[in-house]
Structures
1.
Amino acid sequence: MDGQIQSTRQRPILAILTYADEKRIFRGNQENFIDLIRAGEERGVLVYVMTTADFKLRGKQAIGYKYRASTKSWKRELLPLPNVIYNRIPYRKFEALPEVQQVIQTCMRHREVKFFNPSFFNKWTLFEWLNKSRRTKPYIPETKRLSSSDDIDKLLQAYPSLYLKPIRGKAGKGIMKVSRTEGKSKPRQFELSIQDKTESHISRYPSVTQLWSQVRELVGSKDYIVQQGIVLSSYKRRPFDLRVLVQKNYRGAWTITGIGARLAGKLSITTHVPRGGSIDNPRKLLTHAFGQAESKRIIRSAKRAALIIAKHVESSSGQTLGEMSMDLGVDSDGHIWLFEVNSKPMKFDEPPIRQKSLENLIRYSIFLSQKNGL
Ligand SMILES: Nc1ncnc2c1ncn2[C@@H]1O[C@H](COP(=O)(O)OP(=O)(O)O)[C@@H](O)[C@H]1O
Ligand SMILES: [Mg+2]
């Protein structure tokens, strides 16, 4: 018995932090948590779930939830203090709550516990960070905060299409696309595409001012950015982009876990799967668009870009980060563009990426648990 307690104390302990409310025992993707618990078991790491609702991190104990595979249920217990906490609070609206902020602060300040990925990123801050560096700037489409029709007007003079995106957006919600069209005999027109569930709807306006009154109504009080539209490479007339998972490894160094591709739905302005998009193989799509040799080069440069961006995001944020995912676009010249960086990567459904991502999280947690100091 004694020996057992000893070994429990010595093996690294990883807690997954999430939000809990009356709706469910806790929020977030439980399947994801269970997979990570299993991956931990394989490497001798105890993994459990902690919630912001019954959060306790005092003395030598914490309240956590262990998973029982035999009954497919969770058991709340007093558990030994974790060495490492992985933040998976699933929505910005939860993260913003004062009681959740307090938990996050406690985790960040704790002397013995290492806490990684403390917050969501916001799209505007990201672009400010990445625009400052000579190394990351080439990947950033021109971006401004949206405040008046002037912002649209000016950018439309430089680019034929623009993307309007909520600063705290996710999964394509609230995204709009604006384009100017000019036929030979037709007068200039402005088009507004709005992404609905799985389709986009187009409306047309004779002037930017008229388009703006519609945009303003849709934007409401939310903060938006307006961004140079990139003409994405496409496959059978469906544009695609690349989803890259970047994680730290067992030595705490950034590595590429994998690259997936998302093909836009036929009627969509984004590539999100819930909006009619589908998963595909990046090499196949790129080879179809650019040929074999060029496709290899593009994948290599996408990986290089993702690593440069990850390092820069980490140093600008001043936070401890263990993983992030990126949406990268490839234009018709094969140039790589960054659309966003996500600090709460969604589950990658490609099995090899999935497997490796769990392993990396466990190995990085072991690394953190052995690291001295903050
Ligand atoms: N500037 C842009 N040019 C072309 N396509 C874009 C642009 N910005 C976004 N998109 C498309 O919309 C998708 C969603 O944009 P993103 O910034 O990732 O927002 P979200 O947080 O909603 O996922 C991208 O994956 C890409 O397909
Ligand atoms: Mg995205």
2.
Amino acid sequence: MHDLVIIGCGGFGRESADVVDAINRSAPTWNLLGFVDDDPSAENVARVRRRGAALLGGLEAFSSRGRGVHYAIGIGDAPTRERVASVAEAAGMVPATLVHPWAAIGADADIGEGVVVCAYAQIGSDVSIGRHVHLDRASQIGHDCAVEDFVTVHPAAVVSGGCVLGPGAELGTGSTILPGTAVGAHAVVGAAACVVKDVPPGVTVKGVPAG
Ligand SMILES: CC(C)(COP(=O)(O)OP(=O)(O)OC[C@H]1O[C@@H](n2cnc3c(N)ncnc32)[C@H](O)[C@@H]1OP(=O)(O)O)[C@@H](O)C(=O)NCCC(=O)NCCS
């Protein structure tokens, strides 16, 4: 069993803990020490207590004693996730890759450090997934896609084959990306949008067709 903390106790942080619980039910792997969070809301403190987990304080304080401890980042915002990863790595913490046992992973998928894959997510053949990517419940990444570091794919988003998702890109719930399309770095695709052509870096698109 490896010691593990989840950084951030918001919605995705607690969903990441659900992934840890499912992995442990399948094969005892992680000793979840608790959540690290700089400023948890009162609601989230109550939610963490209800699940019987510990709150371990803020990142700066925890990282001074975190060398060798594995970590996953449960924070949806990509720039914040990037900052947190650099603090954790400078402190000698080790990124954990968490894949729910009910996710389907194709042949020759390359999954980076710190990635969290939730229940019912599907990754096709010959896909590369960068570091600290979030694939939320029932999201789908088609064959031959390249998903770069810190991408966030919200629930039930569908990425067709041969797409490139640039670093820090965010795909809203239920969005669809047509085959061979590129979504630029830190671009945002709105919920339920259909992307039919490349999205430039940093741009937000929404609707059908997305624009
Ligand atoms: C597209 C999006 C990024 C826009 O966010 P925003 O810039 O804060 O936009 P606002 O909420 O101010 O809305 C601006 C306008 O766009 C519309 N709009 C917002 N989201 C939309 C969407 N997904 N599709 C179509 N129109 C949308 C609003 O109705 C509003 O229209 P109006 O100007 O006619 O009143 C955001 O709404 C979105 O869809 N994000 C995805 C979030 C998500 O999936 N989270 C999952 C968490 S698990």
